[in-house]
């Protein structure tokens, strides 16, 4: 079955505190391990449309939106956006959507969620792909995402939004202007004032600041040792330094590494150099 012919179903479930979580679900062979796609901070489930199109039909694909992102609810308190609450939401969503096992693809913040799942719920995992993230986040990335997460540019046109994104994320590997416009359309939506505003709650920046600086997540990364794992790395990444990548490979010698020269944070997973090895890795998971 060609995944491009499948339209995702919009799912809405409740976290344990009653707030609503949104997800996109593509149907597929229920006997095979589902794909659970976890986005980066300030992103939505539609970022994974290309990856889902390549695997839907072959297996079930679920892309989740965290609290405060996309069509998920906005929380009354900023503390609700802390990472420990987000991983709890992932587990709540898996329970509600009957995802008892999964191959997890996590971009940036989503990769951190995958690492935490390896410690908190290892029975869930059958394989993990970390997209441009590791146990140590480069301070340059934290600084960049902090300013971006809390800023609403209120652009009048999609071209203005593209210009702003090109300034903030100059090395993201998008091939042409159409791709940038599509990316901007996934990042912002028109409000009642006619301007383009973020598809996330900008108070998320406050939750990030409350969490302090970079942490050593080596212990949770080592939770991935029992599982097949792949690291996708943009070699010019602002988040994942080469020394961290080398340390990850030393710590998990069977970690499959696929890199994209000249690319910053984060690969879209549709690049030909990435898509082939990634699909082979995922296809090998029953």
TrEMBL record:
Q: What is this protein called?
A: Alpha/beta hydrolase
One Pfam entry for this protein is Abhydrolase_6
Domain called AB hydrolase-1: residue spans: 36-273
Q: Which Gene3D superfamilies match?
A: alpha/beta hydrolase
According to the UniProt entry, its GO molecular function terms are: hydrolase activity
Taxonomic classification: Bacteria, Pseudomonadati, Pseudomonadota, Alphaproteobacteria, Acetobacterales
Cite the SUPFAM superfamilies for this sequence. alpha/beta-Hydrolases (SSF53474)
Query: Is Cell division one of the keywords UniProt gives this record?
Result: no
Keywords carried by this UniProt record: Hydrolase
